[in-house]
Amino acid sequence: MITRSQSPDLPSSSINLSIEQLFEQQTNLFEIKLASNFGLFAKDRGFGFAIFCSSTISEDIFVPHRITEKILTNKPYFLSSLWAEVSSKKEGAKTKYRIENLWNELEDVITNTPKKHIKQAALSIKLLQEQKVISFEPKQKADINVHNEQLIFTYDDFLSAAKEKQLQYRLKQIGNPDKGWDRHNTIAYTYAEYFVERWANQYKLPVLDYNETNQFAPQDYNINSIDIDVKSVIGVGRRKGTQYSSFTDGNEVLIGVYTHTDKLNEDMIELSIDGVFDPKKYHPIDLRLSYLKLNTPPNVCYFSSIYDYFLSSKDNAHTQLTINTALIVYAANINVIPLLLKLCSKTNQEYLLKILITKQNSLLIPIISELIKKNSTELFPHYLADFIIQQTVQKQDLDTTNIKSLLELITIISPRQKRFILDLLKANETLQAVRCHWHPEETIADMGIDIYYADTSSVPTLRAICGCNPKFKTTFFTYSWKTNETLCYSSDDDICDLPNCGCLIHQYKDYHLGSVILGKSSCTKYGKNSYESWLAKREYPYQKSFVTHAY
Length: 551
Prior knowledge:
This protein is α+β, with helices and mostly antiparallel strands.
């Protein structure tokens, strides 16, 4: 078994704090690092420069002579980041920064600073560091581990004896156990079940496998006294699955597992856990889902942290922190804004959210506030995805750059959830480029939008409805029926050239035919039936040209 990491160290989060806010009290506390050439430069000039550890401010910080002398006589200062009281001063169009005091550790700041606001900032940061170790790091590590793809060799002894017995029984029940989709599907969902069982065993949770006594049991497992149905989404080659094939009855708890192989029935399968989907978790939430409803087949954004569900304490008796700008900058720098939101008062939460969220996206603030209030921020990806679809259908432009930065700020989000949401944002970003295929002078402002879902994809298909003739619809966002990849409009060249179609076309590289153009499944020129006829004849009848690429 080999683990593939999907979650490298994240860059520090961006926040919208003005210089005036940061230096409201003339100085503020920052974690800083000395410039790489500080020693040689300072010995030559008698002063030097440092940099902020946070990406909030990119300019250099001036280190005056008295501070430089202190540094040069204290070698440990060179070994790590430092804590500095920094002042700012406007000089024309530029802002210049200067270190007023410097300390090795936060404890030194708390003990030695004479300034009340600097001491308060240091105390708040120290408390955040303690809570990070106690309550945030274990969850963060567990979530990253569960989202990492693990490569499993299907001919190894990965399965337990009991699960291997179930697999052999299942293979005998299918029509042709030697090859084909049925065999691949059977192996994939059996390995997915056992992947979840191994996770539960790793955390020493009590596990009962219902399939040992009844292969047709309505649920697969009881884990920690909760009945669970394991669902797998299956990807092969370029086709990366996001849509699960079935939904719950409102009471059933699902654990979603992503599976992928490069080829059908390959001996190596990639597995990762998408998380837990429990509809009952939504009952206390006073928010409405407009498009991604609970009674529809779930996509990856319906699933939340399996660690939160089974292991994380929901005790609200945390140390409460008083928000200050030094604390916000530090929390963003080490990517613990989700923890900070949980540790501050409601008033401070609203203040922090207004800093994190731009005016264009302000409708997200009550959504996030409600999730924080109900201790359910792990549901944020689901509500965010629904919000993006809703705003797009209503033709409201979003600050998509700001939303992209929010993906890591409210809760820990999986790589697959992030990809799904980034795809949805493309639909909003393309709104202003959309033109009616039949009347190019019509912009999105002149047209309506309709939305529908196919059974094979959780990505919606969005079509702009012609203002002159509602039968004419220009597709500007959809998916490829062949690869399930997201397709997005950029110009009218991306639209099918049949007179009454309006579907998005895209380029696909086929093993037998080379580069071909595909449209929607039902397109009479570039659809599924046409593609199958080209394959049968081993001939693509149209001139090849460059069109939309899948994202």
